[in-house]
Amino acid sequence: MNNVETLCNVPHIIGKGAAWFKNLSKTTNGGTKIYGVSGKVQRPGAWELPMGTTIGEILNEYAGGMREGLKFRGLLPGGGSTDFLVEEHLDVPMDFDTIPEVGSRMGTGTMIILDDQTCPVGMVHNLERFFAQESCGWCTPCRDGLPWVEKVLRALEEGRGQPGDLDLLERHGRFLWLGFTFCALAPGAMEPLRSALKYFRDDFEQHIREKRCPWR
Amino acid sequence: MTTDRMVHLTIDDQEIGCPEGWTVYEAATAAGIHIPTFCHHEKLVPVGACRMCLVEIEGTLGLQTSCTAPVREGMVVRVHTSPRAVEARRANIEFLLTNHPLDCPVCDKGGECPLQDQALLDGPGNSRYVEEKRHKSKRYPLGEFIVLDQERCVLCWRCIRFLDEWAGDHELDLFGRGAGTRLTTFQGRPLTSKWQGNTIDICPVGALTSRIFRFEARVWELTNTPSICPLCSVGCNTFLGVKNNEVRRITPRENPEINDVWVCDKGRFAHSFVDHPERLTTPLVRRDGKLEPATWSEALDVVARGFKAVLDQDGSQAIAGLGSTRVSNEASYLFQRFVRSVLQTNNLDHLERMPSGATPLQSLPNLEHRDVIVLLGADPSTEAPLVELWIKKAVLRHGAKVIVINPHKIELSRYGGPWLGYRPGSGLALLNSLMRALLDTGLRDRTGRATNVDEVRAWLEPFGPDRVERTTGVQAAAIRQAAELLAQAKQPIILYGPNWLLEGPAGSAALLPTGAPSEQRAGLVRPALDLVANLALLLGGVEAGFVPWDHNTLGALEMGVAPDLYPGQQPVTDNRVRSRMASFWGSALSPVRGLDFDGMMVAAREEGLKAMWILGADPARHCRVAGNLLGQIPFLVVQDLFLTDTASLAEVVLPATSFAESDGSAINLTGRLQAVTAAKYPPGQARADWWIITQLARLMVPPKQQRAWAFSSPQHVLDEMAKVLPGYRNLDRAAMLAGGWQPPRPQEAQRRVFTRVNAVTPKEDPEYPLVLCTGRLLYDRGALLHHAEPVQHVVPEGYVMIHPGDAGQYGLADGDGVSLVSRAGRLRSTVRVSDEVAPGTVFAPLNVNDAPLSVLFDDRWTWPRVQVVK
Ligand code: SF4
Ligand code: SF4
Ligand code: SF4
Ligand code: FES
Questions:
Q1: Residue B110 Cβ contacting ligand 1 at under 6 Å
Q2: Do A132 and B95 touch (CB under 8 A)?
Q3: Spatial strand order in the sheet of A85-86
Q4: pTM value?
Q5: Is pLDDT above 80 for B749?
Q6: B62 and A175 in contact by Cβ < 8 A?
Q7: Contact indicator for A35, A49 with CB cutoff of 8 Å
Q8: What domains can be seen in chain A, in order of their start residue?
Q9: Residue B114: CB within 6 Å of ligand 4?
Q10: Which domains are present in chain B?
Q11: Residue ID of nearest Cα to ligand 1 atom 8
């Protein structure tokens, strides 16, 4: 264990006891958590808050809500390799037990917000480009699969999308998944892709139909 | 780790039992269930990188790589019955193909390519990947022998792991990451490993291909004939790939007792001598001083009449035969039979003869399990490469130690030695000192079987490590370190080579007139052999094995190409043996011991030798004195592949076949009898040795002896050998053809007594302050290799290696042109300053200079003292 956030808790737990620590939380996961918010919000930043503070509270109370003229569409709760959550999840407490129940992961606890004037396909493409670059190259699916994913998404963004592309992306989502690859990098990369295909499917289809990115 | 315990599991509804420690992949394969792999190779440690072998294992999350998953009792595995696993493997093939070039029509791997096969079996029929494929380097030479196509590489690590795990040569690696990962060498340096050719075989795609074989043929056009590599004493099992009657490629043939699935690059790439345009294609007969083509009947007639004339006028003592460590057993056997029964003489010998007191190594794979390996004047890396590979396995997998006792710091010193770099000629003193240090470590319990330990303690008194430091040049600490290692060793072994035999009592050799009787000369190697036996006994009677250089060294001796020994090393002076041989050969035999090679040369000088038949040897090239003397023999017949220096002196030259063109057998360094099979027709009129000898005999023997020479194939010769050679009665031909047949080893009485060896150290000679030692290189300009173009590019120019301290003292720098001068002669060379040679010693490789190093030797048995002058 070498996470600074975790280590910082240790002296306090020793000093003040486990019960005290547990009581700091709003849910059954004890203690506090450092939450972060980035994206087009009023006040991007990081805060130490009681564990289990809801997504909506963090976004609206601490990050000050969306910037003028923008609407909230979704978020990656724990960084680039977690599944998207959307409007209906704003009341969900951010803790290690609850977030997985709604289909994502706490990850780092630093959320990335998607607004209504940013292309979700573009956002996912950006993430996949990052992951394709970060692949160490050890195992086949990750090394050769991620660049493929990235290229398909780029084609969508550039108006070259084909009707079968979403099936292809879904297939990659299956085969770059846990249990197929050597490590968790590729499955992590698939989380935003798989959930984007679930929540923003219309946007993907629009790219193919209109042979362009509507946000460009 | 495999144990004896059995584990039971179910794979695709099949119940399977296998030893604990196996992987799921191994269990499935053994049960005949195919699982595709790319990164896995049975000879390499699994890494689980490619994900081709994914299977479903009940009770585990996700799929598992079967090449890394150990079997467990009660495990339920699904390979082909799991749709998820099947689909995942298909997806993987598709991923691999996305960036794989469409090269199959021009790719040398085509036809034996696992990726191609797998794509046909499991791959998608068409490509969903419509994006641009990634581009990397194509046709990128990785050195003299291999060309890399990075686009075809599937990054399976096999080549890297082979070089790391087996060869210990970390020369290849993957650079960059993700899709941009590339295989290459460090800083673009050329690959130098002598094992690199094996990466071609194990590469699952056409990324690594042979520069020698490149575009020579499509693999399905080759006829692959099982054969044996003739280039060193290991005798690796191979396939000769022949197309249009030319050997195009050599690949290893698996034999766990010898070469496993590997061969060295020399054996793989140096085959073009077989189809060299300078091969002799017709007999040559000297007419008006010039060698002219002749028919076989003309040539054989000239030879028969020539020999008969000498027999009639000068008697059989004026004729001699010189055989070879390179020809087949059948050739050697018939040759000595001919010389003994037709020419009626025991004047028979061959160069590089193994002393009959030297014991062959018992097993190659056993080397892996030795914990301390002593190399005594042997350099397996250059002399018998597969021996090196087994030693490296012992070192790399099991942490064995290698003690190197050699004036030259050979490649195997790289594992920390210790290296005992003694001055040539002081080897006996050094070994005595090592034994003395061993006794000092108090390994009393080991010496139980010896009867005279206390005596040996007294003999060794004067050889304390500190006292020999000055004469041997080896630091006492290094000797003690070696002794410590040996004292703690559980499974030590001693390997000694021909160079060790030259450590006889230096100085005394010079007292013998050249051409002294062979037993006196044999006496000179005795002390070197005795000391090896002493050391082995001191360590508790451990194995000491001789590692000869040439292909059929053991065969030439065993077939009796020697002045004093019949086949099976039976003495010619034994009446019972002699009458037995006489009955087999249909002729009375000479009871007198014959001349050895030195004796023959003395006889030539004294004009007593009138005729000589040389089979597959080129003494004139190795020794100028011998060349001059051979030139004086009135009737010289030479049988060889090329017009060698010796052949150019002959009256008649007979064109012989190479190992690729005739059936026969050879005995490798562990005494294993192996079959060689003809893979192609000989060039022109060249004929097999057994045929030539048989034809000549039929011309010469009287009618009633014709039946004794009725051989019609080498198999018939082998039939007779099986009757004549003790121990060959149960010769198993099927085994011989399959993987070699091991004749029963003569049961030698376990030695219990130490033999006293007085180590005479060489006298200093201020005028010639340095001692020369020589050795082999892997690639040289020797008899066959200098006709093998591709490897000639990696043969260095001749050089003389000198220690930096000596170089400083004599004002020599790297690259200086110098003369090496001894009392016998001089030789031009180039200086190489290096600490890979002991101080006071210079090292020069054999067979690379135009002039033979033998000009510096005054006889064949001592290292010459030299000076190096600019
Ligand atoms: S490596 Fe195999 S699949 Fe690739 S081009 Fe060569 S033959 Fe074809
Ligand atoms: S060159 Fe061949 S053996 Fe080496 S990593 Fe690439 S595919 Fe594997
Ligand atoms: S180790 Fe010896 S026998 Fe084997 S391939 Fe090399 S030269 Fe030939
Ligand atoms: S063969 Fe098992 S992962 Fe490559």
A1: yes
A2: no
A3: A45-50, A32-38, A110-115, A72-76, A85-86
A4: 0.90
A5: no
A6: no
A7: yes
A8: 4-115 (3.10.20.600), 120-210 (1.20.1440.230)
A9: no
A10: 6-97 (3.10.20.740), 308-354+552-731 (3.40.50.740), 365-546 (3.40.228.10), 770-869 (2.40.40.20)
A11: B104
